[in-house]
Amino acid sequence: MNSKRKIALLFFAAVSIVHVLGILLKHDPLQLITKPLLIPALIVLYRLSVEKVNKWYIIALVFSFLGDVFLMDKGSYFIYGIASFLLTQLIYIKIVLGKLKPSKLIQKIITIIPFSVFFIVLIGLLKDNLDALFYPVIIYGIAISIFGMVSLLKYLTDKSISSLYLLLGAVVFISSDSMIALHQFYEPKPYYGLFIMITYIVAQYLIYRFMILEKKPT
User: Fold this and answer.
1) What is the C-alpha separation between 49 and 123, in angstroms, rounded?
2) Residue 26, exposed/middle/buried by CB under 10 A (0-12, 13-18, 19+)?
3) Contacts of 133 (CB under 8 A, 6+ apart)
4) Which of 50, 83, 86, 200 sits a CA distance of 20 to 30 A from 69?
5) CB distance 199 to 207 below 8 Å
6) pLDDT at 218
7) Strand, coil or helix: 75
8) Above pLDDT 90, what percent of the chain?
């Protein structure tokens, strides 16, 4: 690992840790400063980690950054946050589809069942409180479930370390988004904010690891 990449990794880790501390300490100014730095720090780390940049991945991270900024406002900009992260998920799906190997029917079935069941159960819990956001949440839920499906299919077809990073990243991302939904539309819990950000940061880092380990072009 070269020195620039090492510094970028340390900076991303430092921003992440300070942001989590800001949540623990309920220090709003610290959270406001560090949250918009998370994804730009990851972009810099990615650019220093690869010889050839995947532009689609950069675009996905830019939409993640916008989603982070919009979701800093808990009210009026929530729908824009959903839209930004929806575009992130669609791009992640595109990237993974471009890397999939041929698969068997049984593998496709295995990928569909767990994420479909989870989606149905989660929407069943949320549906009575979604009101005007019913369709946006449904659409986003379908997109992130598909991201989970294609990530699992990628792992089942090649069993590589990079695919394991991707699968773990997708599952942790789904966990983070599910906690946002449960906190917003089902039953708010004081600890959700902390775990939402920890799982989100871990998910984005795991997907970054997948992107730098994968050699096959999209």
Assistant:
1) 38
2) exposed
3) 78, 79, 82, 185
4) 50
5) no
6) 40
7) coil
8) 89
Q: How far is CA 96 from the centre of its chain?
A: 14
Residue type, 53: V
Nearest CA to 204 out of 1, 67, 29 is that of 67
Q: What pLDDT, on a 0 to 100 scale, did the predictor assign at position 74?
A: 67
| Nearest C-alpha neighbor of 128 from the set 175, 186, 189, 75 | 186
What are the pLDDT digits (tens) for 164-192?
Answer: 999 999 999 999 999 999 998 999 888 89
- Tokens in use for 217? 């072009």
Rounded CA separation 36/65 (Å):
7
Other Cβ atoms less than 10 A from the Cβ of 43: the count is: 20
Residue 39 carries which side chain, given as an amino acid letter?
I
Average pLDDT, the chain: 94
The rounded distance, in Å, linking the Cα atoms of 20 and 2 is: 27
| Region of 129 on the Ramachandran plot (φ > 0 left; ψ -120 to 50 alpha; else beta) | alpha
Tens-place pLDDT, residues 34-43: 999 999 999 9
pLDDT tens string 57-95: 999 999 999 999 999 886 778 899 999 999 999 999 999
- Cβ(97)–Cβ(155) below 8 Å: no
**pLDDT number for residue 76:** 79
Q: What is the helix, strand, coil percentage profile of the chain, to 5? A: 80, 0, 20
Name residue 71's amino acid.
L
